[in-house]
From TrEMBL:
It comes from Geodermatophilus saharensis. Residues 828-846 have a biased composition (Acidic residues). It comes from the Bacteria. Coiled coil: none annotated. Residues 1-13 have a biased composition (Gly residues). This is DEAD/DEAH box helicase domain-containing protein. GO terms for molecular function: 3'-5' DNA helicase activity; ATP binding; nucleic acid binding.
Length: 861
């Protein structure tokens, strides 16, 4: 959507598009532009099945260039001009100039706008001028890191010796990287586990560090982003110890308040460059809602054709027309399923020649599988790929004609990042957003202004989260004793209070000179918040490693009896061994899928703030959540019909987090015309819909959130609806809901009331992860509950009442039950720890926020 793929592309020159076979493919020369391609795809569709709800046209944008800065190294400029880059775009020069002058900068422009050149110009010039200088490059995924490594290698002088330092780097090469590479490509996990704890071994690099590049920095949000912010503060602190003061250059998608977000991340002032000077070809962007079918789901609710099925059909249709296409899906299983469905459709149409040119891409593949898929996609051997968000970030994929988004990716920033993968220099591209059968997607499909007329979100982080700050202070103290002079970087008074708790817990020792790590080995801290070590998937009989899943997701995805899909092949789990972190599977092709069911309990720890709205009160504060996966269902593939349910014996998991909750007194319940029978289902339905819509306002998705509703909660004494963050300590999402309560509930009410179903369906009040099997649900009652809350909000606003009140802290501590709980001791080398973190982290980046998959409302009666 924004021109050629990012790589190191720059204004004034375009690389020629490759054919689908790497330059000699059979790609049709008469591929239709986006608008006509969409019309062709829809030809012959019956009116009652017409899926497109809105079409938006993105206009062509011309390029704006500036002359090469005089300070650019002549050799670097010559190599760029040899690659067809005749003049840099304006934003590239502006950001490069700031970095060259010693000012930390974030360049926040569209996909494929050549952000890489903004840091390559000053950094490679500095390396050419100073043979001792070094650069550290950080990427959130290994695919992006390897792509950028190739880009730098093509531009750098041989003396730079760019190299990767991640979990795929052989042990025998790591010492060479430390000693000889001057452009080190790594990720936050390896920096946290493998570099900073071993800073003495890295001292030669750290004392010569001139630039730190943080690519795709918008990916660092929520708990993970808060951890990364502290990792960067630790890096700056150690660099100061060795006499270095590197300039930070950050690259970001278009986000709100990029300078403020980057400053929060780095912990030091950062200025922003946001005016995009790159050209953008036109694009046609369609909102697509699959039609209702004759099938029914739980409790007779009408079902739409699935987004995955429509995405697979679109992928096959586009590949058949010669359009190079990415189909973004929401889960690993969907990536496998969509690719397999598309291949089957092509085979059924007699296009067996195209079957081999469709594949899937996701985390959990072995490194060599990932590399081969990336190569085949980049050179054009593959025409269509179904992928998770693992390919959302800036890996260089030139010449894509279309992008299909099977479901809202959680944030507008991600939506535009994924959509921006489509774009060719002289041809309008096509983007199709296919709505899933859930409240948020339904809302977006019918409210195009929420997609095209709304600014992207600001990045949400909370560095003061005690589950983040405490462990990070332990890491910092283990690297170098903390002194009072260090505390402003880590939050000042908040950090000092946390240090007192860590000393009391025996994790740190207080000495006149500062705070010292008191543990054995080094602190063991998971910066992804992904819920434990990865679980290996092992094939029974052969011992073959098929892949891995995030530890936090294992209970729900690879429990005993679960169906597991790997590159189109299906397996059934024989046993999940949590002690050994492995799931043993055997090959099987059943006609069913599996869905885990769980139960949840929630207790209020502390109320921080309230808004008293007459008969309704809104609260935000700290809660304890206990969740346990207790059964799983076998459901018929394609229809979702429940075939059987089986018990599971898995341990309960506990979470202290932040929540927003609404209480309705007896008068509010009476005004909503609810009795003892209808009240639980009405609250339950309102809670489902509210969880589904909150990602519209917060940088999260449904899987980042959990909830619970009850007609009488023991801690509130009345009817209550809770929505909580699914991360230890919270991630700011529930608090965002509290702050934007009226907007949140207005959108929720509009979604439920406008849905064409009679009594509730997945597009409005049913949830895909309901611990109670979506029973009971009362759609009409939910609308009345929301009406009462909104009426009270409006009345309070009109009367000038309902202001936020800060509640006096309760006796229960603000910090976790055990402030040292997230921090263990780890033996072994930093390299070994880095490997583990790197492998877990690369997959957690794909499934960000979906580790423990918080329960969406075990309804409490």
């Amino acid at each position: 959507m924004h021109g050629s793929a990012e790589g190191h592309g720059s204004g004034g020159g375009h690389r020629p598009d490759q054919g689908p076979d790497g330059g000699s493919g059979e790609r049709p020369g008469d591929l239709l532009p986006g608008a006509e391609l969409l019309e062709d795809l829809l030809a012959g569709t019956p009116e009652e099945e017409h899926p497109v709800t809105h079409v938006h046209h993105l206009p062509v944008r011309g390029s704006r260039t500036l002359p090469w800065p005089a300070w650019v190294d002549p050799g670097l400029r010559a190599r760029l001009e040899e690659q067809g880059v005749s003049a840099p775009w304006r934003h590239q020069v502006e950001a490069a100039q700031l970095a060259h002058d010693g000012t930390s900068v974030v360049v926040a422009t569209g996909t494929a706008s050549g952000k890489s050149l903004a840091y390559q110009l000053p950094a490679l010039t500095r390396l050419a001028e100073d043979p001792r200088a070094c650069v550290l490059y950080l990427a959130p995924t290994k695919a992006l890191a390897r792509d950028q490594l190739a880009s730098v290698a093509a531009l750098a002088d041989p003396s730079v010796r760019p190299a990767a330092y991640d979990g795929d780097t052989p042990a025998e090469e790591r010492d060479w990287v430390r000693r000889h590479s001057r452009w080190i490509v790594t990720n936050p996990d390896m920096l946290h586990r493998g570099v900073l704890p071993a800073h003495q071994r890295w001292s030669s690099t750290l004392r010569r560090l001139a630039y730190v590049v943080v690519d795709e920095c918008h990916a660092y949000r929520g708990v993970f982003g808060s951890h990364v912010g502290h990792v960067l503060r630790r890096l700056r602190r150690i660099c100061r110890r060795y006499g270095a003061d590197p300039v930070f250059v950050l690259a970001s998608a278009t986000v709100a308040e990029p300078a403020a977000a980057a400053t929060r991340l780095v912990g030091a002032p950062v200025v922003a460059v946001t005016e995009d000077g790159s050209p953008r070809p036109g694009a046609t962007f369609a909102l697509w809602e699959p039609p209702l079918t004759e099938r029914t789901g739980e409790h007779g609710a009408p079902l739409r054709r699935s987004a995955a099925a429509d995405a697979a059909g679109l992928l096959a249709d586009l590949v058949e027309r010669g359009a190079r296409t990415l189909a973004f899906v929401r889960s690993r299983r969907s990536a496998e399923s969509v690719a397999e469905q598309a291949r089957r459709l092509l085979q059924d149409r007699g296009r067996g020649d195209l079957v081999r040119r469709v594949d899937s891409y996701r985390g959990g593949y072995l490194p060599e599988e990932r590399r081969e898929l990336e190569r085949a996609l980049s050179c054009g051997e593959l025409l269509g790929v179904a992928t998770t968000n693992a390919l959302e970030l800036g890996i260089d994929i030139a010449g894509l004609d279309a992008v299909v988004l099977a479901g809202y990716p959680g944030t507008l920033a991600s939506l535009w990042q994924q959509a921006g993968r489509a774009g060719r220099a002289q041809r309008e591209s096509l983007v199709v957003f296919v709505a899933r059968d859930d409240p948020l997607d339904h809302y977006l499909a019918h409210h195009p202004r929420a997609v095209f007329g709304r600014p992207v979100e600001a990045t949400v982080t909370d560095p003061a989260n005690p589950y983040v700050l405490g462990p990070q202070l332990c890491c910092a103290a283990a690297e170098l004793p903390l002194t009072p002079a260090d505390l402003p970087d880590f939050g000042g008074p908040v950090a000092e209070a946390q240090l007192d708790e860590l000393v009391a817990a025996g994790r740190l020792r207080r000495r006149p000179a500062g705070w010292y790590w008191a543990g054995r080995g080094r602190p063991d801290v998971d910066i992804r918040g992904s819920g434990g070590e990865p679980v290996a998937i092992i094939e029974n009989g052969t011992g073959r490693l098929l892949g891995t899943v995030d530890g936090g997701a294992a209970h729900a995805t690879v429990h005993t009896g679960a169906l597991y899909v790997h590159r189109g092949d299906t397996f059934v789990v024989d046993e999940l061994d949590l002690d050994d972190a492995c799931a043993v599977v055997h090959a099987e092709s059943p006609d069913w899928t599996t869905v885990a069911r769980d139960v949840t309990d929630l207790g209020v720890v502390r109320t921080d703030r309230v808004r008293r709205l007459g008969t309704v009160t809104a609260h935000t504060g700290v809660v304890d959540v206990t969740n346990q996966v207790v059964t799983y269902q076998r459901r018929r593939a394609g229809t979702g019909e429940v075939l059987a349910e089986f018990p599971l014996d898995l341990p309960a998991r506990q979470l202290r987090t932040r929540a927003v909750w609404l209480t309705l007194d007896a008068d509010a319940v009476a005004r909503a015309a609810l009795d003892d029978l209808s009240l639980p289902g009405s609250l339950h339905a309102a809670e489902h819909a509210a969880i589904g819509i909150l990602p519209l306002l917060a940088t999260c998705d449904r899987w980042d959130l959990g909830g619970l509703s009850t007609a009488l909660h023991p801690d509130t004494g009345t009817a209550t609806v809770f929505v909580y963050d699914g991360h230890p300590g919270g991630a700011g999402f529930a608090e965002r809901g509290f702050a934007a309560l009226r907007r949140w509930l207005l959108a929720t009410r509009a979604t439920v009331a406008s849905c064409e179903c009679e009594s509730g369906c997945p597009s409005c009040v049913q949830s895909p992860k309901c611990g109670n099997g979506n029973d009971p649900l009362d759609k009409a009652g939910a609308v009345r509950v929301l009406d009462v809350v909104l009426d009270e909000l409006a009345a309070a606003d009109e009367a000038g009442t309902g202001a936020v009140e800060v509640v006096t802290a309760a006796a229960t501590a603000v910090t976790p039950n055990d402030p040292a709980a997230p921090v263990g001791d780890t033996d072994g080398t930093a390299d070994e720890a880095g490997d583990e973190a790197d492998e877990a982290g690369d997959e957690a980046a794909e499934d960000a926020g979906r580790g423990a998959r918080p329960a969406e409302d075990d309804l409490v009666f």
